[in-house]
Amino acid sequence: MLKTFFVVFFAAVLAILLAVVWMRRREDRRAARQLLQVAPDIELDPDLEKEIEKELAVHRYLSSKQRGSGEGDSSSGSSVSGKSENGEAELPTADAAAEAAAQARREERQTARVSQGEEKLRERVSDLFRPAAPDSALANAGRGSLLDSRWELAEDSKLGPFQLRAYKPVYLLPAFWTSDRNTTPHSPNPANTVTTPQVLDSAELKFQISFKTKIAENLFGDNGDIWAGYTQSSRWQAYNGEDSRPFRETNYEPEVMMVFRNGYSIGGWRGRMTGIALNHQSNGRADPLSRSWNRVMLNIGLDRENWALVLRPWYRIPETRSDDNNPDIEDYMGRGDATLTWNRNGHEVSLMARHSLRTGSRSHGALQLDYGFPISNLLRGHVQVFDGYGESLIDYNHKATYVGVGVSLLEWF
Known about the structure:
Layout: H1 2-38, H2 46-66, H3 94-111, H4 116-129, H5 136-139, H6 146-151, E1 164-166, E2 170-178, E3 203-216, E4 225-236, E5 247-266, E6 269-282, E7 292-304, E8 307-316, H7 330-333, E9 336-344, E10 347-355, E11 365-374, E12 380-389, E13 399-410
Antiparallel strand pairs: 1-3, 2-3, 2-13, 3-4, 4-5, 5-6, 6-7, 7-8, 8-9, 9-10, 10-11, 11-12, 12-13
């Protein structure tokens, strides 16, 4: 299942990139062709000009053929026509026609004497077909805001692709305590139910790493970036010497996102970004401890002064019942979440809330509060409190309270 997901995932990304490149190339060629016809002395990229010349030469030849063979003698001076030894017209190759046309154009450029009025006309035509420069004020709206600092939304904030960037908080919690150990993880799928209780301590160590990198930027004019992110969080029974100190649970979460800059305002909040993401999360374990799900996520980001709000509704990609490790995971880990963050003078408080968006026996959710504060220039203190269902995938349908204390290298902002 995971292999199929990644194959589809990378195929989709490659298809998007190829489509964008093809569309841009087609538009460049169309604009250049029009520009050559109106202002022949305009300088173009040599490779692009050769392609345009080839197309124009073939077009002129085919047009002359349609006017009838009776005009063959009168048009014999054309640089793209010729006759064979037996008198029959022969079709020149596209390359030969292009070379002839290019040579003729070079000669025209060497001998042309352009008046001042004609020069101004060419400048106007060139400006007409040149891609419009982005509106500087609009493209840089929100520069320096919280969301811009992490997603490079403003045009002047963009730093280029394939450079590692911060994503979610990076921290180490040597003390991570739970109110209720989940010794027999279970699921509606019988193959994913543990029957022999595990030997677990209430205290363990938790850490998280997270980063992202931009794959492509400005896919649509001066907007539209593709990011790839990865987050991994582990819970280590470091103090459980009785059971050889095992890693109780590790969650792996790769994802890809297409992010767009926004500039709307609502209730004093500025809408900074909208994104669509393909997300995979799993714990990489064999049955009966295996847990995983795939989601399509909508990301909506708003901020104001020292506050940021990110809303993430999602849709779970269905799986066959026999392959589904956790068929009811949406009723516990929710169908969306919201994260509100306050950041000022090195202190950061974030509150995450998620819910199943169902009522009755299917109504479940969770809250997580994180507080980061400066200790030194490079190190920060970190406190985390979680209450509800799904602190990790193996505990997706297990309710407990968790408290962690430690240090962090990076927070949300």
